[in-house]
Design goal:
This protein is mainly alpha-helical. The chain is built from 19 helices and six strands. GO terms for molecular function: phosphatidate cytidylyltransferase activity.
Length: 423
């Protein structure tokens, strides 16, 4: 028997897709009341109604969380991150469950805590500097945050090495890599989502809503008009759905941005007020969110009959965001489809009836989060005086005085200071 085990694990690298252990099929979690109400419909239309009803319910819940404010949105992102991590890790555990890997799940969740501690500690240091300055016990954690994060990760790394068991080495390293790739997909991307949110809720809502809109409209166009298969990884995806989703999403993003850009609540950067212990979204809107007049290209003037139009500059950026959500965002879904086919599963989980798991609904959002963050840093964000001021307030009084003298000397040389201030 020991010889058979050696051969079994020794040939692990030679396994092909057909050798992957079967994962138990997901169960039908559709509420009984919906099953009874839709019992007379065909399977195709039954799935249509289940998906539609649950989609509306999720959208309404999303609106409620938006109304509750930025902090609740951050908690939502964190909850989705944890659930997505759980779904992917569970697939790994189920696929290789017969090998009884020691400490696999415990270490996976430990690494999740370590990585979250690192990323969200960085966020606290950046955006809550004034709050941290008033609490001595937090100053130590922030000052040595990266060292503490590294020490925590090293502890997990050493625990992994100590957990290695003969005849399981190769498989344990497979699962070590599985955990870290899952962390890369979930934790780092959710961190970028929250970074985008701090730039202004509009940078959070427009990209996410564009992906949701593209998902819904592509499904509708594909359901009613789909004839031409788009990609083998997702046989139900069609060119008709892909193209219809693109135009619908661009139009939706342009109109949705127009309404959001009118309200400070959506366009102002999210900042923490240490005096009231609340997040605030009050500011003088930047030029991106101030109405401007644009000339209509000559070719369109003949069609529209307009020489100029009034619009917010952000609406032009919304076209870029919607285009990415429609043309590149779906490849996140294709990637997820390939992953599921590799492990012979239909969905990541059965959390949402008709939709699958949370990861099935957010597979495109992670690509979008990275794009928005890169887009903001490349084309939008400039120097942030507010953030710089928070960092200056953390310095010692002597250091603050040195900064003041240097800045004053620089402004005097440039002739920017008023003569009355030269004394």
């Amino acid at each position: 028997q020991e010889v058979d085990l050696d051969e079994r694990f020794g040939e692990l690298d030679l396994r092909n897709d057909s050798d992957v252990p079967d994962v138990p099929p997901s169960t039908d979690s559709t509420p009984e009341i919906l099953k009874r109400a839709l019992s007379g419909l065909s399977a195709r239309w039954k799935n249509w109604w289940i998906r539609g009803i649950l989609t509306l319910a999720m959208i309404l819940m999303f609106f409620l969380i938006i109304y509750l404010g930025s902090f609740m949105l951050m908690l939502l992102v964190l909850s989705i991150q944890v659930k997505c991590f759980h779904e992917i890790i569970t697939i790994g555990y189920r696929v290789y469950h017969s090998y009884d890997l020691p400490w696999f799940r415990s270490l996976s969740w430990y690494f999740l805590l370590c990585v979250n501690y690192f990323f969200y500690g960085e966020t606290v240091a950046d955006y809550f500097a004034t709050f941290v300055q008033r609490r001595e016990q937090l100053q130590f954690l922030i000052r040595y945050h990266r060292f503490i994060s590294f020490a925590l990760y090293l502890a997990g790394f050493c625990m992994f090495v100590l957990s290695l068991v003969k005849k399981h080495y190769r498989l344990q390293f497979y699962m070590f890599a599985w955990t870290h790739v899952t962390l890369l997909i979930t934790v780092t991307q959710s961190h970028l989502v929250i970074q985008n949110l701090f730039e202004g809720m509009i940078w959070f809502l427009v990209p996410i809503s564009s992906v949701i809109c593209n998902d819904i409209t592509a499904y509708i166009f594909g359901f009613f008009f789909g004839r031409t298969p788009l990609i083998k990884l997702s046989p139900k995806k069609t060119w008709e759905g892909f193209i219809g989703g693109f135009f619908s999403t661009v139009i939706f993003g342009f109109i949705f941005s127009y309404f959001l850009a009118q309200h400070q609540y959506f366009v102002c950067p999210v900042e923490y007020n240490s005096e009231t212990n609340r997040f605030v979204t009050e500011c003088e809107p930047s030029e991106l969110f101030q109405m401007k007049k644009y000339s209509v290209p000559p070719l369109l003037q003949a069609v529209l009959g307009w020489e100029s139009v009034d619009m917010y500059p952000f609406q032009m950026h919304s076209i870029a965001l919607a285009t990415f959500a429609s043309l590149i965002g779906p490849f996140g879904g294709f990637f997820a489809s390939g992953f599921k086919r590799a492990f012979k599963i239909k969905d990541f989980a059965d959390t949402i009836p008709g939709h699958g798991g949370i990861m099935d609904r957010f597979d495109c959002q992670y690509l979008m989060a990275t794009f928005v963050h890169v887009y903001i840093t490349s084309f939008i964000r400039g120097p942030n005086p507010s953030k710089l001021l928070k960092q200056l307030l953390i310095l010692q009084p002597e250091q603050q005085l040195d900064v003041y003298k240097t800045l004053k000397s620089h402004l005097l040389e440039k002739g920017i200071l008023q003569p009355s201030l030269r004394g």
